[in-house]
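Tokens in:
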């Protein structure tokens, strides 16, 4: 009943296509959920043994389920760690990613990041075990996924390996699907995809801006394609950025801004454009007694900025910034560019990957906005 409810909700919202629904019906999500895990956006711990009904209901909520924090340094059911490192993605994202991949029967697929094994099983149910290869860097996570796959009746190829290198032994693939986000598309993924095939991966920049990109591989070894839907996934381990902050020390420039937080960071498309044009800039929000503050940091140059929004009821807000880059000035210039360009939606942007070079474009590959 819980499974049918979830699938009905996904279909009604337009997130689950008729082509994939039978496979979602045959691959129950709860069979890939650990006995104890962190559920939902608030990471509440639920034990199947202690709360079976709550556990089952949470297994079929359209929310992520974290199965590991801090690369396994925190035990399941223990205190939450600093950052999640493995999870079952929310069903909406899984369904939309599979649909975006334009998979048809008979294709050979490489999945980067086995995780819980749920999406691996969905692929195996659609394509058959022989056509699915999935790799996972964490051996503990992989063993649990392999057991869940066996119990569910699936036996795709699952390999303990670094996803950056792909898996050449079964190449070429018709599709490469990543369940982790990348800042840079690994060259091996392109090399192992047949010309005309697609790489579908969450892609992001330093400033939060997660989008799913679908790249078609060309005969010349390049890959190019549009951004499709928002997609927030954990970053591939060897591409993780430091979470350190830049010390707010040294000479600071004080100023004011009328640019509201929601104008930049409340719009997927505006934030994406700003993230492209303000490279290597991490951004997050801090909340305290004085209200909300937006922090920007560039570790490489030691530049920083802080915008004090308080309760956001004002019309202009205090800005402090230091270091060789004036990060908030760059944000305002980038936002002005986005407005002058007609406030383009993220779906008008795309990415071309040529070796180690990545070019972001708008409307067509020849209209390059930035090298990223």
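Residues out:
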């Amino acid at each position: 009943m819980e499974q049918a409810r979830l699938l009905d909700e996904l279909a009604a919202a337009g997130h689950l296509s008729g082509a994939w629904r039978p496979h979602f019906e045959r691959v129950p999500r709860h069979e890939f959920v650990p006995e104890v895990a962190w559920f939902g956006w608030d990471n509440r711990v639920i034990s199947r043994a202690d709360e079976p009904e709550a556990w089952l209901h949470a297994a079929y909520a359209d929310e992520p389920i974290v199965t590991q924090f801090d690369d396994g340094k925190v035990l399941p059911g223990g205190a939450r760690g600093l950052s999640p490192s493995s999870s079952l993605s929310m069903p909406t994202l899984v369904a939309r990613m599979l649909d975006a991949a334009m998979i048809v029967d008979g294709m050979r697929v490489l999945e980067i990041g086995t995780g819980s094994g749920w999406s691996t099983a969905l692929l195996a149910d659609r394509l058959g075990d022989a056509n699915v290869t999935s790799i996972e860097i964490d051996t503990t996570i992989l063993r649990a996924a392999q057991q869940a796959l066996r119990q569910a009746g699936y036996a795709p190829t699952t390999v303990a390996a670094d996803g950056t290198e792909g898996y050449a032994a079964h190449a070429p693939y018709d599709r490469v699907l990543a369940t982790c986000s990348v800042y840079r598309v690994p060259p091996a993924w392109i090399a192992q995809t047949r010309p005309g095939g697609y790489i579908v991966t969450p892609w992001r920049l330093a400033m939060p801006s997660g989008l799913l990109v679908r790249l078609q591989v060309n005969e010349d070894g390049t890959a190019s394609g549009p951004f499709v839907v928002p997609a927030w996934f954990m970053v591939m381990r060897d591409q993780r950025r430091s979470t350190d902050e830049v010390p707010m020390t040294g000479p600071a420039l004080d100023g004011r801004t009328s640019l509201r937080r929601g104008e930049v960071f409340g719009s997927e498309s505006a934030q994406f454009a700003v993230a492209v044009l303000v490279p290597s800039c991490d951004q997050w929000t801090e909340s305290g007694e004085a209200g909300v503050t937006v922090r920007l940091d560039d570790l490489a140059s030691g530049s920083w900025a802080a915008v004090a929004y308080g309760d956001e009821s004002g019309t202009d807000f205090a800005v402090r910034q230091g270091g060789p880059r004036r990060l908030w000035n760059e944000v305002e210039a980038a936002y002005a560019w986005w407005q002058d360009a007609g406030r383009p939606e993220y779906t008008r942007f795309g990415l071309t990957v040529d070796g180690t070079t990545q070019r972001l474009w708008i409307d067509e590959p020849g209209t390059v906005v930035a090298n990223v």
